[in-house]
Design a protein that fits this description.
Number of strands: 5
Number of domains: 1
Strand content: 5-15%
Mean pLDDT: 89
Radius of gyration: 19 Å
Strand order of the largest sheet: 1-2
Oligomer: single chain
Helix content: 55-70%
Length: 261
């Protein structure tokens, strides 16, 4: 395990090329999550061509949403960034981080818009997306670990990140990125097994949203990076997690009342 982690560095050399591990992991995350969505499309009654079109739109929406929410988390630092001139601002737009919840919202908006426009199966398509998304999350967090972003609090049981570009290098840190990787892989497997049993449409999506939101709310307490936006005592992601859980629970209650009526 330690030997494996030692090879997760910010950059990978391929011949004369030096490529960023973070970017490679994001590309791999989208490819594998997209492959899962594409392969599961018939189970949702979704034509493969439409599944391919959706993936292209989700990629754009996800990247834009993730970047926009990241920029929002920098609001407390905009004055400092502005003092550095347009170059500093452009560097944050082009080379800064991304926030998963923003990517999720952007991708979902594209997915929903396409499904509605072409009158394709709605909830079943969301269910297969709910299986695919955590696969991408798991791989993406390995990219986070490679550069040291989203790092955890100091702990004597943590891991050193000597190659990190962002996290402290000389202090053992809770590997929050890898914890999320493991969680998302397990969640994806469980959701797939549930999907195979043919539950009511929308159940898989609801379970994914609640399970990940609860996990994200908890793991945020173990995060050590401060540039992620806070509203009061909770981070922006924690507030979003609370809203998602409340929306899902509200939707489930409303659906049950409509069934009984």
């Amino acid at each position: 395990m330690c030997l494996f982690l030692a090879y997760i560095k910010p950059f990978v050399s391929v011949g004369r090329l030096t490529l960023p591990t973070y970017g490679l992991m994001l590309a791999l995350a989208f490819l594998l999550a997209g492959l899962v969505f594409y392969l599961l499309a018939p189970r949702a009654g979704l034509p493969r061509l439409d599944a391919f079109n959706i993936l292209a739109l989700v990629l754009v929406g996800g990247l834009v949403g993730a970047k926009l929410l990241y920029l929002l988390t920098l609001i407390p630092y905009w004055r400092e960034l502005a003092a550095g001139g347009w170059r500093a601002l452009l560097e944050q737009v082009a080379g800064g981080g991304m926030v998963f919840y923003g990517g999720l919202l952007g991708g979902v908006l594209m997915l929903v818009g396409y499904l509605k426009k072409y009158k394709l199966p709605f909830l079943p398509s969301l269910d297969i997306a709910a299986v695919a998304v955590p696969v991408g999350q798991a791989i993406g967090r390995v990219g986070c670990f490679s550069v040291g972003c989203c790092y955890g609090v100091p702990s004597k049981h943590g891991l050193l990140l000597p190659h990190s570009l962002i996290a402290p290098r000389d202090v053992p840190l809770v590997p929050t990125q890898l914890i999320e990787t493991v969680f998302c892989l397990v969640l994806a497997a469980l959701l797939y097994l549930l999907l195979r049993r043919g539950p009511r449409a929308g159940v898989v999506t609801s379970i994914y949203l609640v399970a990940y939101s609860v996990f994200r709310f908890v793991i945020e307490f173990w995060r050590g990076d401060v540039v992620r936006g806070f509203i009061g005592p909770l981070s922006l992601s924690q507030w979003i997690s609370i809203i998602i859980v409340l929306l899902v629970l509200g939707y489930q209650l409303l659906s049950r009342r409509q069934v009984r009526a």
